[in-house]
Amino acid sequence: MRSKYTAVGMLFLAASLSPGISPLPADAAPPEKPNIVILLADDLGWADVGYHGEEVIRTPALDRLSREGAQLDRFYATPICSPTRAALMTGRDPIRLGVAYATILPWSNNGIHPDERFMPESFRDAGYQTAMVGKWHLGHAQQTYHPNERGFQHFYGHLHTEVGYFPPFANQGGKDFQANGKSIDDQGYETFLLADEASRWIRERDEEKPFFLYIPFIAPHTPLDAPEDLKARYAEMDDDRKATRSKHSDDSRRIARLSGRSSARPMYAAVVDAMDQAVGRILKTLDDEGLADNTIVIFFSDNGGAAYATGGADNVPLRGGKGNTFEGGIRVVSLIRWPGVIEANSRVESIISVMDVFPSLAAASGVPIEGSRKLDGRNMWPAIADKKKIEREDLLFFASETPIRGAFSLTAFDDEWKLVQQVRQGLLSAEVTNYLFNISADPYEYNNLATAHPDVVAEMAEAIHYWRTLHPVSGIRSTLTPPPGWRAPRDWVSYPVALAQLQDEPAPGMAPPAVLPVLDWMHGESGRLIYDCEPYGLLGGGLCK
Q1: E strands along 248-313, which residues?
Q2: Fold held by 33-385
């Protein structure tokens, strides 16, 4: 029996080669371009917000967005930080970008190819003023990867993750806090500093232009810390979380209890509370400036909550959490508000991915994308604004190789079926465990149907296999430690190689150009030597050009 997954992921390939997303026609565009505010949480748990039933952790600002806007009930991000940010900024699949399996770590030279068009570039070129306040995590080794080179006219924040919540805001001992390439020494609690800077920028904006503002918090990512009053608020909070049904997360909690370590849950709650307060400050600024009615505010988490021992998050009833591709790792808290356009207190049930944000916001704003590369994301604005049910006609793929190198969590799914593959590679072996779920009937992933439907497993596994061949051979892989002897800078603001010191074009590599297509083809499933290459073509043959 032939199914829609046959022919090695052809549906995925056809979707990626389809015409680019066009903005709304002129007669359908709003008379005044809306402002855009993107609020990104870092490791927020599905169950850790009031509107999902959380009764202890206070999230009045997020609950307000839920009442005044729409819950994006099936919003999917990647299982880890950098891939989600790459997908958000480009509307493209992170597997093509070489940032799908792991995050960009301080000792990495990787970033996102400068040929990729970033969302703020499109909005800037359409007349928007653009700013980013928060955590970047998309490359730092060369100025070509810096936020100010990717469409953000103003950048205040950190190039890295895990800089801490209080000064000196450092990673690997190197200070990481800047404004537009200059080191700064602002003092205070990091989450509140971001809210204050975002509010300042809104108040001091050019009132003649719309604005695009991206605020990626570091909260509630580890290492957790909070102001003393918030620590005291949750000091007596019980950790009554149920099991994640993901082995590594549950084992880590069990080991922590046996070793007598205190639960991370109370501190996590304090960090979430602080983040919600920061969101509230930004919403109040929009209110005070009379901007709320013509501003699209979208909030989501970059991945599922870190439900392991040191993380403190809770994703139940979803299975798993950060780092794996069960629903708890990729189905995330998400809200969107545009008063008068998006129905208040509503719910959008169509599958929406982080790759869809760029084309959807561009369509809502009448902003042309104009990139040379085809988007993998879809324009989901009709589902959001008109509540139109949009079926998933092609598979959506996610992956993680974090934290153990060679241990992959993979998935492909649509509205009906979801395959989760756990792959453990050894030097001479590979073990593959398949979990097949009828995700429409079993959203919490209790019933593994892999044995009952081997044909579906085989065809979806084949699609995953093909999808993985798109990964550049020099893309990011899991590395928890730096190269032997590597040293961090004293201040990360000095680290990116300046544009004047770089050549004009990307380096060609060591292989002679004439034989590169053949060498790329010979690499086969190992990945791509030629960037953004479709190795087999639509008809199953041919070389990359």
Answers
A1: 295-301
A2: Alkaline Phosphatase, subunit A (3.40.720)
